[in-house]
Amino acid sequence: MLDDMDAARALVAKRAAQITDLQAQIAVLQADQQRAQRRLDAYKYPVLTLANEVTEEIFRQVFPPYPEAPPHTKGKFFLFPVTHVCSQWRKIAVQTRVLWRAIDLPEPTHRGGRSIAAKMTATWLERSGNYPLSIHGVPNALPHLLLTLAPYRPRWEHLSLSVTNVAQFAEVAAGPMPLLRSLTLRFIESSNTAALASIQHSDSPLLRSVSLEPYPGPALILPWSQLTSLTLRRTSPDDALPILRRSARLVHCTLHLVLNPMSNGAWLIRTEDIVLPRLETLVFEATTASVNLGKRVLKILNTPALLSLEVPERFISSASIAPTVVLTEFIVKCGCALQKLKVSGAQYTEQVYRTALPSIDEITAAVSLNISI
């Protein structure tokens, strides 16, 4: 029994000595750990040592140039993750109002996504401060976000929307848009276009660029006379030519003309030329019904300042007259110093065009043709 007690005392003493040694080693390790932590705490990531102004400029450079909106994927805005990196970046991003002035409206990606998209959009617009806004939206992003956009209408500067509910859009857009400079509307739904009459062009004194697909009809009255850029897609000559006659300040024009089967052909009754004295760029886009249509349209247009013309060959072709003849007659009539000609879907070679039109510096005759309807 005494031997057991002596053995136990010896073991306790041995373990106490071992614990003391281990505690000394732990103390050394803890001291090393503390020194390493102090070094880490003292270190500043280089990107966080930059002046706020430099970080702000980096954010600006990452974004596409205004009025193009930054992208988003899976319903998440491009800028939001930046605000989650650290508190310093969040503060800089949120306070840099100019970063939030262009928005690509998010599409709902799941059930309940509409309310989330509306909240994200409202947050984005609130952070834009008092900057003019560039707003882009696809069909699935509307119409549930239109009401979110409505309070910001006085700051709309560039608006590009696919409209699925004409009446709702007209209601939201019926009011002053004093900063609006460009308007792009793609009408997915063509009913209730009469509601567009509530949009008053006098409320948009800065509007200069308009793109419509298709032209929704005479209910939409825009300040054609002040426009410098106009795009009309899937629009009949019956609608397009009267608009061009009222758009004398145009510098750039793109036309995607389609024949209206209900047309009485009144536009073919030529009274006087449509003179566009400032037009420098004219683009005709191809359609399946465009054969020989351009020949008749070009006979009506007079563009003395035209520098660049893009046209599908079938648009100015017929069985009796070569496209080079149509172009020569048009250029001579207008008296323009055309510098650039691009012909798509060409059966004639570039050399044929160069021989027939030697005054044009740059001629391209592309064989391929992507026909749209």
Question: Notable features of this structure?
Answer:
15 strands, elongated, Leucine-rich repeat, LRR (right-handed beta-alpha superhelix), 33% helix, alpha/beta, two-stranded antiparallel ribbon, 373 residues, F-box domain-containing protein
Question: What report would you give on this structure?
Answer:
This is F-box domain-containing protein. It comes from Favolaschia claudopus. The structure is a single chain. The chain is of the alpha/beta class and 373 residues long. The chain has a domain at 134-365: Alpha-Beta Horseshoe (Leucine-rich repeat, LRR (right-handed beta-alpha superhelix)). The protein has 10 helices and 15 strands. It has helices at residues 2-42, 52-62, 87-95, 113-127, 146-149, 166-173, 237-245, 293-298, 323-334, 350-356, and strands spanning 72-73, 76-77, 102-104, 133-137, 156-163, 182-187, 209-213, 229-235, 252-257, 274-275, 281-284, 301-302, 308-312, 340-344, 362-365. The strands form 3 sheets. It has an 11-stranded parallel sheet. β14 (340-344), α10 (350-356) and β15 form a beta-alpha-beta unit. The protein is elongated and about 130 Å long.
Shape: elongated
End-to-end Cα distance: 107 Å
The total count of strands amounts to 15
String of helices and strands: HHEEHEHEHEHEEEHEEEHEEHEHE
Structural class: alpha/beta
- Whole-number average pLDDT? 85
What does the main sheet amount to? Answer: 11 strands, parallel
Gyration radius from CA atoms, angstroms:
33 Å
Count the helices. How many? 10
> What strand line-up does the widest sheet have?
3-4-5-6-7-8-9-11-13-14-15
What is the strand content? 15-25%
The CATH class of the domain at 134-365: Alpha Beta
Level of helix content? Answer: 25-40%
Fill in the CATH topology of the domain at 134-365.
Answer: Leucine-rich repeat, LRR (right-handed beta-alpha superhelix)
Protein name: F-box domain-containing protein
